């Protein structure tokens, strides 16, 4: 069995690393805030001091951190992955970042003698816990094949999308659609309830027709209970909208709906909901804040 490393034990990374440990793999973990490693160590993982030590010790190192800045820092920092990767060892970045950041990391990993794959995921906290993520892989094909046993533990499908950048772009397209749908849904829920409709009835009607989807169902139930406990931090969704809009700028693709949804998420961040779940955008759309 391969020897895996895992960098970043936030909401997603913790669940993904835990599934690797529970599947019997040898896993070495690191997190910036080291206290988050304790739970994994209790399950049998080994804790390392820095990303470089993980990349040096492991056949394949996975990473799941917040954004492009974090993804770059764990690679290019003084104790970063680039200082430890080599001898064809693998680095798989599963964070949601832009294609340019991913390409920069890919070039540095290759220059250091390692192999790189980007593999952002679709799916949230529960699919991460259940091992049913959709993994959007792109980059080194041999590393993709070697990482497959780990992908099979963490996800339900892992299509290979081609050269580095294709996975990052696929992920941004998916989340851009999701952010637009969520804000439209929140507007509908606010309008409906203000006009005297019962929130549960709106959900029932939506669920019975062509607009039925797990997001409306799940986030709708949370919204009605005023439960904003974090599955997907709102600040990360706003980052995804920002990166998608930037990609649209680059390609001169108008993204009127996404750009407006991005503003709603920015307003929600400004109102103090950055660390709450994405459904907290409802509070600003409804006009509570
Ligand atoms: P999270 O709970 O906020 O965790 C973020 C992780 O990144 C933590 O381990 C954090 O370390 C680390 N980090 C942040 N800045 C860092 C830096 N400068 N250097 C080193 N480590 C840093 O986020 P998450 O929900 O797990 O999301 C992780 C990634 O998956 C994001 O790119 C997100 O967009 C994507 N994603 C999330 C979901 C979801 O539903 N949650 C779904 C699909 C994709 P500390 O613990 O030290 O702060």
| Main pleated sheet | 7 strands, mixed
Tally of individual domains: 2
Average of pLDDT: 97
Q: Kindly state the percentage of residues in helix.
A: 40-55%
Radius of gyration: 20 Å
CATH topology descriptor of the largest domain: Rossmann fold
Low-confidence stretches: none
Q: Order of SSEs, N→C?
A: EHEHEHEHEHEEHEEHEHHHHHH
**Which overall shape is indicated by the principal axes computed on the Cα atoms?**
globular
Cofactors, ions and other ligands in the entry: NADP nicotinamide-adenine-dinucleotide phosphate
Number of strands: 10
Write the CATH architecture name of the largest domain. 3-Layer(aba) Sandwich
Q: CATH H level of the largest domain: which superfamily?
A: NAD(P)-binding Rossmann-like Domain
- The top level CATH class name of the largest domain: Alpha Beta
Ends distance: 52 Å
In terms of DSSP E residues, the strand content is 5-15%
Discrete helix count: 13
Q: How would you summarize the topology of this molecule?
A:
Layout: E1 3-7, H1 11-22, E2 26-30, H2 38-43, E3 46-47, H3 51-57, E4 60-63, H4 68-76, E5 90-93, H5 99-111, E6 115-118, E7 121-122, H6 125-130, E8 133-135, E9 138-139, H7 141-154, E10 155-157, H8 166-194, H9 199-208, H10 214-224, H11 234-250, H12 256-273, H13 281-286
Parallel strand pairs: 1-2, 1-4, 2-3, 4-5, 5-6, 8-10
Antiparallel strand pairs: 6-9, 7-8
Helix pairs in contact: 8-11, 8-12, 9-10, 11-12
The structure holds NADP nicotinamide-adenine-dinucleotide phosphate (NAP).
Residues 8-13, 31-33, 36, 64-67, 69-70, 73-74, 95-96, 121, 124-125, 231-233, 236, 240 line the site of NADP nicotinamide-adenine-dinucleotide phosphate.
């Amino acid at each position: 069995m391969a020897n895996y490393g895992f960098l970043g034990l936030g909401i997603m990374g913790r669940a993904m690393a835990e599934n690797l440990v529970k599947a019997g793999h040898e896993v070495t973990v690191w997190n910036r805030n080291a206290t988050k490693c304790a739970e994994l160590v209790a399950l049998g993982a080994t804790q390392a001091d820095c990303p470089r030590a993980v990349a040096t010790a492991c056949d394949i190192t996975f990473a799941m951190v917040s954004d492009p800045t974090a993804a770059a820092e764990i690679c290019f920092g003084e104790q970063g992955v680039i200082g430890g990767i080599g001898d064809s060892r693998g680095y798989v970045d599963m964070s949601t970042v832009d294609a340019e950041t991913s390409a920069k990391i890919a070039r540095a990993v290759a220059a250091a003698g390692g192999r790189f794959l980007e593999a952002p995921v679709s799916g949230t906290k529960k699919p991460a816990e259940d091992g049913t993520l959709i993994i959007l892989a792109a980059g080194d094909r041999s590393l993709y094949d070697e990482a497959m046993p780990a992908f099979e533990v963490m996800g339900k499908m892992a299509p290979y999308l081609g050269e580095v950048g294709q996975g990052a772009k696929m992920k941004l397209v998916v989340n851009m659609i999701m952010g637009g749908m969520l804000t439209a849904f929140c507007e509908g829920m606010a309008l409906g309830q203000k006009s005297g409709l019962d929130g549960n009835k709106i959900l029932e009607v939506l669920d019975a027709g062509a607009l039925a989807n797990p997001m409306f169902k799940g986030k709708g139930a949370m919204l009605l209970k005023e439960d904003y406990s974090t599955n997907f931090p709102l600040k990360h969704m706003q980052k995804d909208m920002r990166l998608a809009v930037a990609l649209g700028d680059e390609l001169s693709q108008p993204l009127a709906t996404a750009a407006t949804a991005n503003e709603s998420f920015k307003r929600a961040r400004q109102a103090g909901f950055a660390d709450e779940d994405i459904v907290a955008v409802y509070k600003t759309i409804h006009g509570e804040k």
